[in-house]
Design a protein that fits this description.
By secondary structure, the chain is of the alpha/beta class. The protein contains 13 helices and 22 strands. It has 3 domains: 15-53 and 95-155 and 279-341, 3-Layer(bba) Sandwich (FAD/NAD(P)-binding domain), CATH 3.50.50.60; 163-276, 3-Layer(bba) Sandwich (FAD/NAD(P)-binding domain), CATH 3.50.50; 355-465, Enolase-like, domain 1 (2-Layer Sandwich). A hairpin with a 2-residue loop joins β5 (135-137) and β6.
């Protein structure tokens, strides 16, 4: 191996645990097992570090922050007496700086960690199962008592006629472009499409998002609708309620043919990016022959203990097709490793899982949506507070957004919280703790919050269940 640490095999030739995948879940499982005294083999293929550090969280958030600086300059005009201008002068320099960060973090958080664990061996190659369930790497058997599959996901390709004949971008290659196109179509309006669309729009690209269901279809409808308006204010067009006919390259342009209730429509742009979801990396593992079942989304089916349908084989992270967030991958992998080595006593719990979409304003959520709470049989009560009721937003002259709280009308216990705000990601954990503690909205509303903070919006939203906060003076709550 050219850039990874390779320790010796166990003296008896048998590993306690083999981990397939060298990303966040794989390393979490391996380090957890090593800390418990196990001999571990990590099997990696391709670039070490997985999606998050290489092509996902790190590069996207680096460019999101860069794009925010461009927007902040124009937003400064909200304040009288200030005039600021910012523009992209060298996009390739921004991309290089982003890649330097990726390379540094990959080395610091993955490559350089391996030498610290003498009980972890890194094996590079393609892993797969034999029909009898035996694990092999490049055809050579690996002797391991237990196995954890953590092979992650890759961008999914939508079913559109002609898509394979068009030079499309995905979330990986879009962030590697060293020149900015004049225009771009983004197919898919989930968190990946929304984040990357805003990056390019703020860099000066004319962006059109195309989606069957609209922007962030899994979010609360009030949030999706509001964010759609904010995107429109930035020049981002969103086309929804359509079906796809075909896509083709004509000269230097991509032509996307759509059908809608109003008739056929063609959208053209210099580039097209596919952001229609991700597919678990399960197709090369020979899982079916080994008796390991997968779901309709190609994710490996696991029980709450992270066990697959084959004895002594576990799976964790995005490859399960569930909760595709890096922190949930690491969390699930730790449970899988501890269960594999011990007594299967730990269970995966995502009931209070915060999630963030790093658009601007940010979208942050935890717990039930209103629809989920009603489907679960709760007598639902909701509170919606727009940011023009939050003093912090008024002082910042940026009232884009809202807070929405979901509660059980009978017990007044909080069931869910959803935030659309420029600093929403920094507020959601407070809501998560409140839900985890079983707090009522009255208890949350009576807590002391610091004044002129975004998170104070949670307090005000909790009070809004039973009162009109417009009638309160500053800090009167």
């Amino acid at each position: 191996m050219s850039d990874c640490y390779d320790n010796d095999k166990p003296a008896n030739g048998q590993y306690d645990l083999a981990v397939i995948g060298a990303g966040s879940a794989g390393f979490s499982a391996a380090i957890t097992a090593a800390d418990e005294g196990a001999q571990v083999a990590v099997i990696g293929y391709g670039t070490i570090g997985g999606t998050c550090v290489n092509v996902g969280c790190v590069p996207s958030k680096a460019l999101i922050r860069a794009a925010e600086s461009l927007h902040a300059a124009s937003a400064a005009e909200r304040f009288d007496g200030i005039e600021v201008q910012a523009k992209v002068t060298d996009w390739s320099a921004m991309v290089k700086q982003k890649q330097d960060l990726v390379d540094d973090l990959r080395k610091a958080k993955y490559i350089d960690i391996l030498p610290a664990y003498n009980s972890i061996a890194y094996l590079e190659g393609k892993a797969s199962f034999a029909d009898d369930g035996a694990l092999k790497v490049d055809g050579k058997p690996i002797n391991a008592k237990k196995i954890i599959i953590a092979t992650g996901t890759r961008p999914a390709l939508p079913s559109i006629e002609g898509i394979e004949d068009v030079p499309f971008l995905d979330s990986t290659t879009a962030l590697e472009q060293e020149t900015l196109p004049e225009s771009m179509i983004v197919i898919g309006a989930g968190y990946i499409g929304a984040e990357i669309a805003q990056i390019f729009a703020r860099a000066g690209v004319k962006v059109t998002i195309v989606s069957r269901r609209g922007l962030l279809p899994e979010a609360e409808p009030e949030i999706g609708e509001a964010l759609t308006g904010y995107f429109a204010d930035e020049g981002i067009s969103i086309v929804k309620g359509i079906t796809y006919d075909r896509i083709e390259q004509i000269g230097n342009s991509v032509h996307l043919h759509l059908n809608s209730p109003k008739g056929a429509k063609v959208i053209t742009a210099e580039k097209v990016m596919i952001a229609s979801g991700r597919t678990p990396n399960t197709d090369q593992l020979n899982l079916k022959a080994a008796g390991i079942d997968i779901a309709g989304n190609q994710g490996i089916i696991v029980d709450p203990q992270m066990r697959t349908t084959r004895d002594n084989v576990y799976a964790a992270g995005d490859v399960t097709g569930n909760d595709q967030f890096v922190y949930m991958a690491a969390y699930g992998a730790k449970i899988a490793a501890k269960n594999a080595l011990n007594s299967n006593s730990l269970s995966y719990d995502n009931s209070v899982m915060p999630a963030v979409v790093f658009t601007d304003p940010q979208v942050a959520s935890v717990g039930y949506t209103e629809a989920q709470a009603r489907a679960a049989g709760f007598d639902v009560k909701t509170s919606i507070l727009t940011l023009d009721n939050v003093p912090r937003a008024l002082a910042a002259r940026d009232t884009r957004g809202l807070f929405k709280l979901i509660a059980d009308a009978k017990t007044k216990k909080l069931l869910g919280a959803h935030i659309l705000a420029p600093e929403g990601s920094d507020s959601i954990q407070t809501a998560a703790l409140a839900i985890k503690a079983g707090m009522t909205y009255e208890e949350l509303g009576s807590m002391i919050f610091p004044y002129l903070t975004t998170v104070e919006g949670l307090k005000l939203a909790a009070q809004t269940f039973d009162m009109d906060v417009k009638k309160l003076s500053c800090c009167a709550g």
